[in-house]
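Figure 6 in text form: structure in, sequence out.
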């Protein structure tokens, strides 16, 4: 018997590792809900940028996170009445998200929102601390990685496809900085959860990664 009736698959990994695509497809295959926890940090960051809130004003940013007027509708993400699905993917917003993610009260404010995504028949949660902090009793935990070069290539392609400007050298530098910040922060750093399965995807297609996660989940379910 599992401790929690609603199953959770926690997929954690560094930025641009492809975990979003994999987690989304796994959720579709299983008919589960999907939580893009990074989007919540990005929405808070976008909100802070729009309000010109100083990034070191922890109290003000936590307030924004606490009262985030966000909605996830299908594949679109809304901040109040504005569709910000594209805006939150900009590099500036991602970098700002990584900076405010070090603030403990911001993480605390977003934790409750994340737990609310756990609804029947199940949840696939993607982020940095899904298996370590938010859903420590997840049915399956996956730590999904790829080399920094493979990730920079993927991010470059994504940005160009979406019509954003992109520069390979800047992307590599940003990814390294963000990895450093996400992995070395004091609260909920990016690290493999206990019992996590490692998935190195540099030389894998998204479909192969999805199949592997589904195999692990089928196995984990038997023991849940
Ligand atoms: O996964 P992403 O690139 O959309 O996440 C943006 C930033 O948000 C990332 O650099 C760190 C932060 N984040 C976090 O601290 N914890 C999470 N569970 C998800 C994202």
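Output sequence:
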């Amino acid at each position: 018997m599992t401790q929690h009736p609603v199953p959770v698959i926690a997929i954690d990994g560094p930025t641009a590792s492809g975990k979003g695509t994999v987690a989304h497809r796994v959720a579709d295959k299983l008919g589960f809900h999907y939580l893009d926890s990074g989007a919540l940090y990005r929405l808070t960051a976008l909100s802070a940028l729009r309000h010109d809130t100083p990034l070191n004003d922890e109290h003000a940013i936590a307030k924004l996170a606490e009262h985030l007027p966000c909605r996830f509708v299908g594949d679109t993400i809304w901040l109040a009445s504005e569709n910000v699905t594209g805006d939150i993917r900009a590099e500036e917003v991602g970098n700002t998200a990584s900076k405010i993610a070090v603030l403990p009260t911001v993480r605390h404010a977003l934790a409750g929102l994340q737990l609310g995504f756990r609804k029947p028949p199940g949840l696939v949660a993607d982020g940095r601390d899904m298996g370590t902090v938010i859903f420590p009793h997840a049915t399956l935990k996956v730590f999904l990685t790829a080399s920094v070069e493979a990730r920079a290539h993927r991010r470059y392609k994504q940005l160009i496809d979406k019509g954003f400007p992109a520069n390979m050298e800047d992307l590599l530098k940003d990814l390294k900085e963000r990895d450093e910040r996400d992995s070395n922060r004091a609260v909920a750093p990016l690290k493999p959860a206990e019992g996590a399965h490692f998935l190195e995807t540099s030389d894998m297609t998204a479909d192969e990664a999805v199949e592997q996660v589904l195999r692990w989940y089928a196995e984990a379910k038997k023991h849940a």
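Caption detail: The first helix runs from residue 19 to 30.
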